[in-house]
Each structure stands twice: as structure tokens, then as C-alpha cells.
């Protein structure tokens, strides 16, 4: 599935998420709708046309959240390096409490858009089983 997909394509599920303050810090987090499941491990997250990596996790209060967008999967797991979610919120002039669009594009590919913004996504084909098995063997 290497075709580009617009945010308004029938295969993209768009829901409202909310930009909230992460604890007492000035860092943003995205609170996702209750029916979004937290997948295991890092996923890809597109912000303003750039693909980053993130984890979608269930918080202690039961909400499902995204707390950052990082350059690679390892950084997303460890929440290390620059958190591009901060710059995205600032660049789009989004204050805490503001709703944003959360697009579920494909398994492991999500996008977040400021209200009124458009997006086009490029899903990546999954590797075939033999390549996945080799990668899993290398990971341990």
C-alpha cells in the first residue's frame, strides 16, 4: 500500500483528540478518544507532513495518551531526544484544552492535524514474513 492517502479518504478514521498539559509541566500531551486502543510498542505519527515515532499508552487514570513525537522508535520508547510534539503545538498556535484531529491511517500509522488543516499520508508496506523473522531473531 504505497499510495498516498488524503486525511478525508474513506479508509482514514478521524476522531477528535485534545491537547492537554502533561502534569505540571508546560509540555503538551494528546489525550485520545476512549475507544482508541493503545498498541504495543512504537508507532509512526505524522505531524505537518513529517513522520515521527511515538508510543500510545494508557495513563494511570485510564486515558489513552501520546506524550511525544521522536525521531526514531528507540527514542520514542525511552522518551529521549527532541520531542517534536512541543514544536508542532507551538508552530500551530495551539493552546492547552484545544481539540485537534487524530487520523488512524493504517495499522501503526497515525496523524495529528490542527483544526482546518489538511494532510496526505504515505503508508509503508510491511516487510514480508521472512524479513520480519530475521529482524526478530536479531532483536533477541
UniProtKB/TrEMBL annotation:
<dbReference type="InterPro" id="IPR055536">
    <property type="entry name" value="DUF7112"/>
</dbReference>
<protein>
    <submittedName>
        <fullName>Uncharacterized protein</fullName>
    </submittedName>
</protein>
<dbReference type="Pfam" id="PF23424">
    <property type="entry name" value="DUF7112"/>
</dbReference>
<feature type="region of interest" description="Disordered">
    <location>
        <begin position="1"/>
        <end position="27"/>
    </location>
</feature>
<feature type="compositionally biased region" description="Basic and acidic residues">
    <location>
        <begin position="1"/>
        <end position="10"/>
    </location>
</feature>
